[in-house]
Every structure is written in structure tokens, then in C-alpha cells.
Amino acid sequence: MRKKAFTLIELLVVISIIALLVAILMPALGKAREQARRTLCLSNLKQQGIGLLMYSHDNNDAMPLTAYYGGNRWLWDVSYFTTDVMISSGGDKKIFHCPSNKIDTLRTEYWRYTEVSTQGGGAAAVNAVDATAEPTGDNLRQWHFRVVSYFYMMDFLDTPTGNVYGRGQTPGLPGVQWITKTNVKNPASSPLITDCTAKYPNGQWNLPNRVGQWSMGTNHMDTSEPAGSNTIYVDNHAAWRPFQGETAHPNHQHTAGCTYDDVIMHRYTQDGVKFWW
């Protein structure tokens, strides 16, 4: 007796149905993966916030601040000393990298940025710095910094003089409270750390993976625009805030039902790069 088998047409129909189902399911699977990354990102911020608050409780409400290095003002730079503080609460270096950021900020070029950059950069410098230990002593570890995938609202400490250098304000943008102590007026609405959301002079939200002056990508993208950002506040509560478009709030004015705390807005500019949170 001849065995029954699929005809070519039947086989093509089955393949077409499978392809259609995959096409329908892929966006949903992509959203589920991104939601998982957002959850891990939120956990990263919570872990960092716990470390900072533990430090402030032991130091008269003071924050560890971050490094002042040659006039540096980038929000994604955080000192070795400050990362030590946050890791001491039980985390590790992975908490400083948002899983949605396509740039691997745990690579040596970023994780030990000032050590690499002072040697001229490039593969030779990376190999050289890998062969040595990180600098020891609070003074050096406060001075050196890492490039990570979050923004820090703390002010800068000039280690040799002990002076705090304020970041200042960008004229025409909403006022920003730079944190030096946890006893701020409105801790529940004062951002402490937030996702990297940066727009560059060429209009891009993301740049190629490279080390240099502009080296960071926006964490949570929704096709061509940011989806939103996680933010942890001085009182250590964390929340997700959606991005509502660049034209949603002309002249940075409040609109009905919206405040600066529930939308991502352009709040700071450095060398043509716009920082949003």
C-alpha cells in the first residue's frame, strides 16, 4: 500500500502558516524581552541607590559625589570611589550597565576610562591597563572615573582641593537640583540616578560603539525614539517614565496633567549633547 505524504503545495502552505505565526509572535516576544531588560535595569538602580543611601547615613547625609577630571562634566561619568560605595552594599560591576544599552560599558575602555585615556587610548593602552591593578587609596579612586550607562545627578569633587564643583544650569532649560546631600527639600521628586537618554548634535539618539568624547547610547529605544527611562530618586523609590516626544512640551512648560516628574524632558546640555530625564 502506498503511504500518504504531504504534497509540495501542502508543505508550502504549512511553511507559510508557520512563517505567519512567527511574524505575529516576534514583536510580542521582543516586547517581553525589553520588559525583562527594563525590570533588570530598575533592579540595578535600586541596588545603586541602596549603596548611596547607606553611605549618606554614615556620613551626615553627604553623598560620595564623583570625580572632577580636567573640567569633566559628563553625566555618565562616575568615580571609582563612588562605584566602590555602591558595590559595597552587595552589588557588582554589572549593576552599572543597563541591559538595554547596546554599548558594552563593562569593557576596559569604559570601565577604567581615565586609566586608558591617559595612555593615549587604543588596543595597546587597553592591554597595558589590563596588566595592572586599579589605583588604590581614596584620593586616587575619587579622581579616576568610569564611563557607565546611567546618568548621575551628584556634583563633582576636586580631590586635591576638596572643593565641590557645581555642574551649573543650561539657560532656558528647567532647573536641575544637583545632589550633594540626601536631606534635600523634596527627596521623592529629586532624581538621583536615571537611564542614559542622550541626543547628539547630528540628531541621533545612539552613536556607534566607540570610546571618545561622545561614546554612549540611549538605554531604552522604541524604534527611532526613546521608549522612556527608569529613574531612582533621593528617597530611594524608583519609577519608569515614558518618553512623550520632543514637541510634547514646547518651551518646557507644564501642560494639563503633566509635570516635570512624569515625562522625559531635555534638562541639560554639554558640548552640543542634550541630556534627557
Report on this structure.
α1 (8-58) packs across α2. The protein has six helices and 14 strands. The chain starts with 7 loop residues before the first helix and ends with a strand. It has one domain (13-276). It is globular, with a radius of gyration of 22 Å. A four-stranded antiparallel β-sheet has the order 4-7-11-12, covered by helices on one side. 30% of the residues lie in helices and 17% in strands. It has 277 residues and is α+β, with helices and mostly antiparallel strands.
What characteristics describe this protein?
277 residues; alpha+beta; three-stranded mixed β-sheet; 6 helices
Tell me the span between the first and last alpha carbons.
72 Å
Number of helices: 6
Helix content: 25-40%
Number of strands: 14
Multimer state: single chain
The largest sheet is: 4 strands, antiparallel
Strand order of the largest sheet: 4-7-11-12
Shape annotation: globular
SSE ordering: HEEHHHHHEEEEEEEEEEEE
Counted up, domains total: 1
DSSP strand content: 15-25%
- Mean pLDDT, to the nearest integer, reads 83
| Classification by helices and strands | alpha+beta
Low-pLDDT segments, ≥5 res: none
Radius of gyration: 22 Å
Topology (SSEs and partners):
Layout: H1 8-58, E1 66-67, E2 77-79, H2 80-87, H3 108-111, H4 113-117, H5 122-130, H6 138-143, E3 145-147, E4 150-152, E5 156-158, E6 163-165, E7 191-195, E8 198-199, E9 221-222, E10 225-226, E11 228-233, E12 238-242, E13 266-270, E14 273-276
